[in-house]
Amino acid sequence: MNHNTKARYAELELQYRPQVVDGLRRTGMSYREIARTLEISARKVEAVLGEAAALRASGHSHAEIGRIVGLPRTTVQDMLREPKRASLTGRKTAAVAALVEMHGMQIDVLAHFLDTGRNHTYVLVAELEWAKLVRPLQQVQPGAKWVVPTRDSAARYLGWRPKDWTPPLMYANHYRAVAQARIMLVGSDPARWISERRLRHDAEQAVRDGVVSTGRAPLAGRPHVHDGRFLRHTRDGRQWWAVEVELTRKTREAMDLALRGAIRAARDAEPDPCLGVLYLCRSAAVIDGVHAAADRLSAEFVSLDMDLVVQDFDDQWTEFLAGLNAKKAAQTARRGLHVTRKAS
Questions:
Q1: Interval 216-229: pLDDT, tens
Q2: Given Cys at both, which of 109, 116, 273, 311 links 120, Cβ 3.0 to 4.6 Å?
Q3: Rounded CA gap, 120 and 53, in Å?
Q4: What sign has the CA pseudo-torsion 335, 18, 54, 157?
Q5: How far apart are CA 239 and CA 275, in angstroms?
Q6: What are phi and psi for residue 233, nearest 5 degrees?
Q7: Domain tally for the chain?
Q8: Do 183 and 143 sit in the same domain of this protein?
Q9: What is the DSSP string of 135-172?
């Protein structure tokens, strides 16, 4: 075998290592067996799978992890030992920036944002925690744990020092859904999303400057704040839209107030007014409540050149995941599974 061929195989091995390692693990191979088969270290196997880090984050001991992944306890300890230096890669920077904008995300939602596996995300979050950019994982409600930035890291990204934030149990599902909405609408592109956190900061500044709210009965100190704004690219150019996530049905009066406030805030948005308001609703009852409020809008709103779109949140998320899975399946089919070994 000539040197060019060796180099080509080495390049292919590195390029397709994640698929190879994942495939071998799915067949039942232990970490040690995979490492021996591919002639790589157990640490490199863990870098792909992240299984040991995820188990450690879930509270398993080194001995228990060793039995599960097929490695000696001392090897697991060494493999999971905190690195001496943790470089801030582009992916880590994007993760922290998004976490700050959204206040925090559950680990599975962050994995979707980064378009990577949950185990890989556990590894990334462990490195961010070691670098003191995020707090230890927090269990708020049943399901995935929350990743929340430290106050200092939030201040660096926002440009102002925010209050300490912990996912509130009453509104945790709402914060989760808004993060999911961002992923569905714009992916990980930071230039196409304005977060509720920034909008609220701007609104509070407007109140300090003497600007009143945009609700049905404007009151000082009560401006309406969208759950986010997103940028669409259409044939007609760039369009900013406001998004509202409604998980439970409001009373008639509360829904009327919220819808009018959302429309006025979209109309008066700076630097560009929004061309529409998108409502993502959970359940038919919530959708009916929004439609009913829309039917009660006064002439002031009906005459506006603004679109109001109401969609089922869960249907949209299911469709998004189906498209994501189909895309990944197509990519895997194109690549195939390449297992190479060094020439003897």
A1: 454 544 679 999 99
A2: 116
A3: 9
A4: negative
A5: 6
A6: -105, 115
A7: 3
A8: no
A9: PSPB--SSSSPEE-B-HHHHHHHHSS-PPP----GGGH
- Chosen domain end from 62, 81, 100: 81
Whether residues 64 and 184 fall in one domain: no
Q: Are both 223 and 182 inside the same structural domain?
A: yes
pTM of the model: 0.73
Distance (Å, rounded) from C-alpha 29 to C-alpha 226?
Answer: 49
Q: Can you tell me which residue has the tokens 């805030």?
A: 265
CB 34 within 8 A of CB 25: yes
| 106 bridge partner residues | 146
Same domain, yes or no: 248 and 313: yes
Does one domain contain both 99 and 215? no
Weakest mean pLDDT among 4-18, 114-128, 191-205, 324-338: 4-18
Local structure of residue 82 (DSSP, 8 states): P
Claim to verify: residue 92 and residue 73 sit in the same structural domain = no
In terms of residue numbers, what domain contains 12? 3-81
- Residue 228 dihedral angles phi and psi, to the nearest 5°: 165, 165
Residues 7 and 105 in one domain: no
pLDDT tens-digit readout, 117-137: 888 899 899 999 999 999 999
Q: Which residues contact 48 (CB under 8 A, 6 or more apart)?
A: 17, 18, 21, 22, 120
Q: Which residue has the tokens 């040197």?
A: 3
Q: Is the pLDDT of residue 318 over 80?
A: yes
- 303 pLDDT exceeds 80? yes
3-state secondary structure labels for all residues of 240-258:
EEEEEEECCCCCHHHHHHH
The 10s digit of each residue's pLDDT in 130-182 is: 999 999 999 999 899 999 999 999 999 999 999 999 999 999 999 999 999 99
Regarding whether 203 and 139 lie in a shared domain, the answer is no
Identify which of 250, 270, 259 has the alpha carbon closest to the alpha carbon of residue 296.
Answer: 259
What are the phi and psi torsion angles at 303 (to 5°)? -80, -10
Contact 184, 316 (CB under 8 A): yes
Place of tokens 């801030």: 88
* Six token digits for residue 163: 């209050």
pLDDT higher than 80, residue 238: yes
